UniProtKB/TrEMBL annotation:
The keyword Lyase applies. This is Hydroxymethylglutaryl-CoA lyase. Residues 6-273 form the Pyruvate carboxyltransferase domain. CDD domains: DRE_TIM_HMGL. Belongs to the HMG-CoA lyase family. InterPro entries: Aldolase_TIM, HMGL, PYR_CT. It comes from Streptomyces composti.
Length: 298
């Protein structure tokens, strides 16, 4: 069966904008997040407290976060280490996310660490966040395929998921960073996680649409009991440290499918499309989302 309600975890302002060549002015980012909140989205990832040289597009996190902190929505932020956590906590962040990799190649490229060194870096971050009742998400990248290593073995992914949960993460996000997953692979990973004792209630899915499989993969995950889905308004996105990553699953495409299935999201699709059209004008190119294109005149 399918869930009655799906929690959409909006990543456009972070995963989307981190990959833009042009740096988007902080006022435009704040307006983007405010408009997203007005569509009914309840969880909007705002930014990352990472090294500004690694992700220059999000170097304005200190300016941006206070501009949106009063919105009545969840505003998680990425923190790779204690330095990032300090920066986030200083601004009153109540939800953070660490981001691990299932492969050594991407751990090195994204975090300058081995997989185990990265997990060791996250441990005090998670412990300190939990001690302050700050919610912690554990992202896991390259859960299906890796641009350097090819297909990623399911047991390798399960092992890092377990490590993230054991250190205290409240939820996981299974990342198909480069968008190569197909439904059978999604089903195999979710089955293996269930067999490893990971409750489906803590699992979110994070698909990129490189090969046009993101919606099929999402539907497969919903059929397996997943109720948290990451997506990006207008299909913005990618990852600066994974060359072949293109945009995330578009939130509009997701909402269109869920509405058709009679699944509640709380999102006003018309307002969301208008927001992505507005953002596309700022970025100087049309949204790649099929639903945005169908419902607008861009
Ligand atoms: P490093 O070079 O190993 O850093 O980078 P370090 O620990 O050796 O520290 C070097 C210097 O950086 C020090 O300064 C630190 O203070 C400073 P110095 O003493 O030399 O003056 N520093 C910081 N400054 C500000 N904020 C910080 C911070 N940390 C250290 N947080 C590091 C290691 C983790 C910092 C770096 O690799 C990094 O920032 N990586 C972030 C990469 C990133 O954000 N990638 C995109 C997000 S992941 C993603 O998009 C995938 C996802 O969407 C899911 C999916 O699709 O798969 C989530
Ligand atoms: Mg991503």
């Amino acid at each position: 069966g399918l869930p009655g309600r799906v929690r959409i975890y909006e990543v456009g302002a972070r995963d989307g904008l981190q990959n833009e060549k042009a740096v988007v002015p902080v006022e435009v980012k704040a307006e983007f997040i405010r408009r997203l909140a007005a569509t009914g989205l309840g969880t909007i990832e705002a930014t990352s407290f990472v090294h500004p040289k690694w992700v220059p597009q999000l170097a304005d996190a200190e300016q941006l976060y206070p501009e949106v902190a009063d919105l009545p929505v969840e505003l998680p932020v990425l923190v790779p280490n204690e330095r990032g956590l300090d920066r986030a906590l200083a601004l009153g962040a109540r939800r953070v996310a660490v981001f691990a990799s299932a492969t050594e190649s991407f751990a090195k490229a994204n975090l300058n660490r081995t997989v185990d060194e990265a997990l060791a870096m996250f441990e005090p971050v998670v412990a300190r966040a939990k001690a302050q009742q700050v919610g912690v998400r554990g992202y896991l990248s390259m859960c299906f395929g890796d641009p350097w290593e090819g297909p990623v073995p399911v047991p390798q992914v399960v092992k890092v998921c377990r490590a993230l949960l054991d250190m205290g993460c409240d939820e996981l996000s299974l990342g198909d960073t480069i968008g190569v997953a197909t439904p059978g692979h999604v089903q195999a990973l979710l089955t293996a996680l269930r067999e490893a004792g990971v409750p489906v209630s803590v699992i979110g899915v994070h698909f990129h649409d490189t090969y046009g499989q993101a919606l099929s993969n999402t539907l497969t995950a919903l059929q397996q009991g997943v109720t948290t889905v990451d997506s990006s308004a207008g299909g913005l996105g990618g990852c600066p440290y994974a060359k072949s990553a293109t945009g995330n699953l578009a939130t509009e495409d997701l909402v269109w499918m869920l509405q058709g299935l009679g699944i509640d999201t709380g999102v006003d699709l018309g307002r969301l499309v208008a927001t992505s059209v507005w953002m596309a004008a700022h970025l100087g190119r049309p949204s790649p989302s099929r639903t945005v294109r169908a419902l607008s005149h861009q």
